[in-house]
Amino acid sequence: MGKALTIALDAMGGDAAPEMVVRGANIARERFPEVRFLMFGRKADVSQFLDRKKRLKEVTTLVHTDDVVSSKEKPSIALRSGRNSSMRLAINAVHAGEADCVVSAGNTGALMGMAKFVLKTLPGINRPAIASFFPTMHGESVMLDLGANVSCDAENLVDFAVMGNAFARSVLGLLQPSYGLLNVGSEDTKGHESLQEASNILRGSALPGEFLGFVEGDDIAKGTADVIVTDGFTGNVALKTAEGTAKLINEYMRHTFRSSILASLGYLLARPAMRKLRQRVDPRGYNGAMFLGLNGIAVKSHGGTDALGFANAIGVAVDMHRHGITEKIRSDLALLDRGPGKAQVAAV
Amino acid sequence: MGKALTIALDAMGGDAAPEMVVRGANIARERFPEVRFLMFGRKADVSQFLDRKKRLKEVTTLVHTDDVVSSKEKPSIALRSGRNSSMRLAINAVHAGEADCVVSAGNTGALMGMAKFVLKTLPGINRPAIASFFPTMHGESVMLDLGANVSCDAENLVDFAVMGNAFARSVLGLLQPSYGLLNVGSEDTKGHESLQEASNILRGSALPGEFLGFVEGDDIAKGTADVIVTDGFTGNVALKTAEGTAKLINEYMRHTFRSSILASLGYLLARPAMRKLRQRVDPRGYNGAMFLGLNGIAVKSHGGTDALGFANAIGVAVDMHRHGITEKIRSDLALLDRGPGKAQVAAV
Fold first, then answer.
1. Interface predicted TM-score (ipTM)
2. Nearest-CA distance from B28 to chain A in Å?
3. A241 to B233: CB separation less than 8 angstroms, yes or no
4. Hey, what domains does chain B have and what are their CATH numbers?
5. Lowest-confidence region among A287-301, A311-325, B8-22, B259-273
6. Which of A60, A172, B86, B150 has the highest CB neighbour number within 10 Å of its CB?
């Protein structure tokens, strides 16, 4: 059993909140006996589910607030009018040192906006990024940014490389992670200028791990690199394209197995193996987008997740805390040589 | 049987050329009895395969040239030093009116560079785009640009929308195709400024079909839109990410069916249905990237394709010609209202 650790939960975030959040926290409690919870939300709504989970209730402090950030709210509006929202109070708890991490299944843009405003970025980082795991031929890799920053310059991409690299070394436990910049070809002259600049900086850096230069879209699933670095626009499209493709093939499969009696019989025989396959590509297993580059740990669960997926998102936060991801990013930034201005900031 | 139609083939392009090209042309000859071929390549190399196909030989004129554009050649170099290459001569044949379309499985960048240089873009189009089919939940859709233009402004995106729309109406036979701009969210304020500008122009245009505004990565496979418009960087990454994801799931499947005796038995029973599934997602069925926006029809086959895939690429060229895609794009451009300068050009 590890050191005690407190997780702030936005009890009202997510399509099936607050029940899903309470049930997810209960699954996480079984997995991580050292975890305590600080839940924020409407007391009456949350209590009806929390009261049924005695052991969870013992390790949970529920703080009442009426305000909730809706999933449709624009981040800029949420930032101004959501000061007493369950989401904001959960983030505040991390800033105040009352919690070690925050997990929410609420509005992504609002969560990122608030987390950035309250927790601030690490010294030397201009913009935080959203990172997540991808299943690959060799296991899993990490990709970032998945949508926090629509436009990125070379410095941003380099920051993301540092953050992703630190994540792979700490949470994934890789000593020398490989990392690459997502591009439309592997030749040096391909792609936007910012990619070429970022590649030059990374090639000359003292970062641990192996810099692979440019990688392409099919390298994500191949597992060519442990860390895939890209701007938030491209990353978001790639993530959703992969999800859409997986769903399409799944649909084709269902159709195939129902297309004849023999095929249905075949499916029956193969069912235990198929179940394992489904587990392997179960999106709940990859639930939890990490916000990297902030003074604190924030994890975004998919809004449509169930309790199991939410528990996995809590697990990601626990992992990040245990492995000291924030400190690792901080110290890695000092290894970059990006000219005097930035380097001084990074060396603080 | 349709009107006679001549296709210029780069006999030396592709990993398995020239044998694959000759065999592919032979499959296409069976499918399209009205087609004649104009092949360019090293006579001795091509003849050894062509001589074995009597009926193909009867409808084929083989023009000798020693020069070949290598798959590794930079487009700019190929453009300068490849004046007598099989690829260039095949494109020249379209420009000279000796052929109606050109098909090559060679170097994509070189093919696009040469096609643009020789055939020129249509009046009103600044940049041609690469388009291809995607399998979806509802059949198939068209996406462009897939890599011809790394950076695109609003005008380019609008051009692509016109081109994709004309393609869907002619080749796909849709009367009112739906089309959307690929973005990271469906709200008006999302994404790059160029996307918002393009959206405004398209919303006010008289183009046939239904403009859906912004669509997201998962909409590609869902089939939300018949035409997905994006810049060449994002499109290329999305295409390759989808391909990589499909391969990954295929690999998982293979593994699953071999994981137990029951699963293997199940696979045996389901095999006929599985074969149909494989055909449905067979990349050869979707082979053939269309170059749109040029004064002439050019189709790029995948470099690693086999004869069947190459025949499909020829089929795409035949379809484009039969449906008068070039004329359709030309007339649609006149329907746009983009301010005086551009509109005049488009109205020529």
1. 0.89
2. 28
3. no
4. 1-125+293-324+343-348 (3.40.718.10), 126-285 (3.40.718.10)
5. B259-273
6. B86
